[in-house]
Design goal:
The structure is a single chain. By secondary structure, this protein is of the alpha+beta class. The chain has helices at 35-50, 63-68, 82-95, and strands at residues 16-21, 54-57, 73-76, 100-108, 111-116. It contains three helices and five strands; from the N terminus they run βαβαβαββ.
Length: 118
């Protein structure tokens, strides 16, 4: 919303997510965490939360029309940018007890944004 370029129009992405975990020690298997553990925790949540879902700012003028049409819409208080998505994912992974260092969301092969706490 309020974007000066072509992104002001409704559009979607087939994003990819990169999650970096960090620890000063390794577990008994020589890992921070097994990749399958983080994947189990995050993959289903990502699909349930974002897949085939329109993310819209709460003040977006098209929101009432989509809701009336019965479309799946996730209403958010901030603009649903890649940075915003990275923060939501970061927070979810951290709440799961994983030592997350940063999360990057790739909208295309050459465009990504990340979120970290340092």
């Amino acid at each position: 919303m309020n974007h000066p370029g072509k992104c002001k129009h409704l559009h979607g992405h087939s994003a990819q997510v990169a999650i970096t975990l960090e620890s000063k020690t390794l577990n008994e298997q020589g890992m921070v965490y097994d990749f399958s553990d983080i994947k189990k925790f995050v993959a289903t949540w990502l699909d349930d939360t974002f897949d085939h879902n329109m993310l819209l700012h709460k003040d977006d003028p098209v929101l009432p029309l989509l809701q009336q049409a019965g479309e799946r819409v996730m209403v958010v208080d901030e603009h649903p940018t890649a940075e915003f998505l990275a923060k939501i994912i970061f927070d979810h992974v951290a709440q799961g007890g994983f030592p997350v260092k940063d999360v990057s969301v790739w909208e295309t092969d050459s465009a990504n944004a990340g979120y970290s706490i340092d």
